[in-house]
Specification:
By secondary structure, the chain is an all-alpha fold. It has one domain. The longest helix is centred in the C-terminal third of the chain and has 28 residues. The radius of gyration is 16 Å and the shape is globular.
């Protein structure tokens, strides 16, 4: 019965990312392409690793987060106004993120894959956290609020309370709180 909360969270994630993609297509949101590409990779790999380790419903929000992040990445190429200029820090974070994914590929162990997927996602998030703080007008913060809700629904579907079930959802809650906080602090500093 509790897995229905996960379905609700995954549906909310779809709606939240739909609006982010829509704002991107309209040129009002400017996603950092390194972040969104690596978020998609990390989420899809973490959900595949969790699924291969026996996790079922709790992996759904992570999978949806990865899939919808890829759709936002694609949307960022449609409208030239949605472009965010990448700098050295973005490329460094992207390289570290990619390195973490390669290390997962070498190990092929589900637990290690989840650790490296979290590291990859964290490196990918860093440029957007900083951008949200410095340029909050380039972000659609409601998407991160919905993502926080979606990640929280994973906890309703836990069966073993093991690392493979808990690690990525806990990380997603944490990173979305950081993104929301950075946006609000950035907005208050601009006023």
């Amino acid at each position: 019965m509790l897995q229905y909360a996960v379905l609700l969270g995954a549906g909310a994630q779809l709606v939240g990312k739909y609006y982010y993609a829509k704002e991107t297509l309209l040129g009002r949101t400017k996603p950092n392409r390194v972040t969104w590409l690596m978020w998609s990779s990390a989420g899809l790999i973490a959900s595949a690793a969790a699924f291969s380790d026996g996790v079922r419903w709790a992996a759904l929000p992570v999978f949806v987060a990865g899939l919808t992040a890829f759709l936002v990445f694609i949307a960022s190429f449609v409208n030239p106004k949605a472009y965010w200029k990448l700098e050295t820090f973005d490329y460094i974070c992207g390289t570290c993120s990619l390195l973490a994914l390669i290390l997962w590929w070498i190990t092929k162990e589900p637990m290690i894959a989840i650790i490296f997927a979290i590291a990859s996602d964290g490196f990918a998030a860093a440029p957007t956290i900083i951008k949200s703080w410095k340029f909050p007008e380039t972000e659609f913060v409601k998407t991160y609020m919905v993502a926080l809700f979606s990640a929280s629904t994973s906890f309703f579907a836990l069966k073993t309370f093991g690392f493979s079930e808990l690690a990525f959802p806990i990380y997603l809650v944490f990173v979305n709180i950081l993104l929301i906080g950075a946006s609000y602090v950035g907005r208050s500093k601009k006023k």
